[in-house]
């Protein structure tokens, strides 16, 4: 009888701990999501002026996108991603267009500085969409959200898109370093993102330059046979031991 009471008490205590932890995580996500400007804590990252580029950054939210901004980012996404997605693109494009205007969507917009001549395309590069809005032209963006993965608060990068003419100038690395700072500042356990296997340049960038690992939540880690049929991998960079154990360490065949 005493043992039964003890077991019930232990179960009750464990359940309380689980609920308290969930509440704490929910509060972390809420606090991060309601912050007005994630760039405010990182003034040096508001401007990028190197490698022939002169741009500045601005924060944004999905439900507040003006029509010209919405039109531009959707077109840039198509320019950059229609190839890697191939036959999957028509379906994916509809999903992504809904995601981009969701209230949870947070943005970093890359603006060209006033008076700077546009960078000319290199051989073989695609034409970028034309900016038809007011103010300084947008030439790239990051779409990210604060979510829960495997009971861990994480910053999930949905998109990092730059015009073809400004790629290969270390701006992508600069933006991902900023994303990591934002994640840490807002008590996230990791940064996560999804990459198409066919997008070899993106895979190389995240895996080799930014030191991301294949996540334990990626199809290839959950089930190698199923993973072989999927066109994408889920990558992560963890910031503490708990996040590493939940999001990274059970990976199959990862370094």
Structure, described:
The chain is an alpha+beta fold. 42% of the residues lie in helices and 23% in strands. An 8-stranded mixed beta sheet has the order 1-2-3-4-5-6-8-7, sandwiched between helices. Helix 2 packs antiparallel against helix 3 (89-100). The chain is globular and about 80 Å long. Residues 251-255 have low confidence and may be disordered.
Q: Outline, from the CA principal axes?
A: globular
Distance between the termini: 50 Å
**Number of helices in the DSSP assignment:** 8
Radius of gyration computed on alpha carbons: 21 Å
Helix and strand content put the structural class at alpha+beta
The tally of strands reads 8
Biggest sheet statistics:
8 strands, mixed
Q: In what order do the strands lie side by side in the largest sheet?
A: 1-2-3-4-5-6-8-7
* SSE pattern: HEEHHEEEHEHEHHEH
Classify the beta-strand content into a percent band: 15-25%
Mean pLDDT, rounded to whole units? 91
The residue ranges in which pLDDT falls below 50 over 5 or more consecutive positions are 251-255
Helix content: 40-55%
Please give the oligomerization state of what you see.
single chain
């Amino acid at each position: 009888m005493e043992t039964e009471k003890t077991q019930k008490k232990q179960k009750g205590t464990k359940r309380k701990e689980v609920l308290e932890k969930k509440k704490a995580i929910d509060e972390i996500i809420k606090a991060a999501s309601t912050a007005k400007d994630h760039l405010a804590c990182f003034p040096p990252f508001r401007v990028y002026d190197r490698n022939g580029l002169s741009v500045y950054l601005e924060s944004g939210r999905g439900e507040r996108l003006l029509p010209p901004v919405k039109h531009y980012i959707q077109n840039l996404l198509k320019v950059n991603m229609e190839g890697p997605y191939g036959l999957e693109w028509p379906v994916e494009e509809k999903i992504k267009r809904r995601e981009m205007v969701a209230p949870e969507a947070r943005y970093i917009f890359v603006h060209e500085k006033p008076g700077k001549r546009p960078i000319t395309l290199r051989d073989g590069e695609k034409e970028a969409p034309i900016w038809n809005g007011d103010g300084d032209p947008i030439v790239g963006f990051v779409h990210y959200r604060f979510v829960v993965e495997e009971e861990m608060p994480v910053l999930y990068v949905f998109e990092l898109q730059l015009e073809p003419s400004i790629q290969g100038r270390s701006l992508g690395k600069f933006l991902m370093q900023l994303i990591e700072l934002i994640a840490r500042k807002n008590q996230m356990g990791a940064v996560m993102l999804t990459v198409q296997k066919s997008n070899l340049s993106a895979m190389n960038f995240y895996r080799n330059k930014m030191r991301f690992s294949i996540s334990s939540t990626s199809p290839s880690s959950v089930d190698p046979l199923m993973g072989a049929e999927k066109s994408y991998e889920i990558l992560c960079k963890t910031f503490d031991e708990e996040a590493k154990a939940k999001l990274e360490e059970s990976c199959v065949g990862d370094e």
